[in-house]
């Protein structure tokens, strides 16, 4: 029997007396992409911090690869935060940036081997950035940089990839290209991919499951299944407008919920 890559049952998290997450149940299996959607301040980033072992919780059960989060080796989880800061004056190439992802595997004071460089190039090919491997990363567009940072996370050869608002600042075309790459990674690497977003538009076309979070998870189901209006109101508020793309049809439909 295979264990879930992430298993959360009855999770409660507080900041002081304020309840941030309440009664969270979530399961992420190997080889699937799950997106957690919800408004800003709804607890999405806090949930990722719990999974990463960066935030304590008051009640519940959290297992990552069958272990409590703080017992999981860092190299088993690839993480892309909301913002990656690289000094504009730091002369580092795309290849060198991705090679940095091998360092947790190398250990202290060990130099990268030819195998490490081979894995780095393979990761760049997977995100379709190998043709720019010698370019200074600061010369890239926002979408290109995101691909490079994904490749760096993949260079650790993790079992789980966690992304916090990965498409922020990208236009629609760049978002779609980015999510297509995630699907390719899932299929070729058979890893679990968990990401959070405040937008269920473009992302719903590419992920396997969607969980709607606003303090608690109000909905958790397969992507493409219509989310009830009452759920959307609880999660996003009473006045929302959502553009949902359906991968099984040529166009899309707009749902207005008052």
Descriptive key words:
single chain, three-stranded antiparallel β-sheet, 27% helix, alpha/beta, 11 strands, six-stranded mixed β-sheet, disordered C terminus, 258 residues
Q: Any chance you could write out the topology, listing elements then pairs?
A:
Blueprint: E1 6-15, E2 18-28, E3 33-37, H1 44-51, E4 59-64, E5 77-80, H2 94-99, H3 103-106, H4 114-126, H5 142-154, E6 160-164, H6 172-189, E7 192-197, E8 209-214, E9 216-222, H7 229-236, E10 240-245, E11 252-257
Parallel strand pairs: 3-7, 3-8, 5-6, 6-7
Antiparallel strand pairs: 1-2, 1-4, 8-9, 10-11
Helix pairs in contact: 4-5
What does the main sheet amount to?
Answer: 6 strands, mixed
Count the beta strands: 11
What is the CA-based Rg, rounded? 19 Å
SSE pattern: EEEHEEHHHHEHEEEHEE
Described by the principal axes of the CA atoms, the overall outline is: globular
Question: What share of the residues lie within helices?
Answer: 25-40%
Structural class: alpha/beta
Average pLDDT level: 85
Please mark out the parts with pLDDT under 50 across 5 or more consecutive residues, or reply none: 243-258
Strand content: 25-35%
First-to-last CA distance: 45 Å
Main-sheet strand order equals 5-6-7-3-8-9
Number of helices: 7
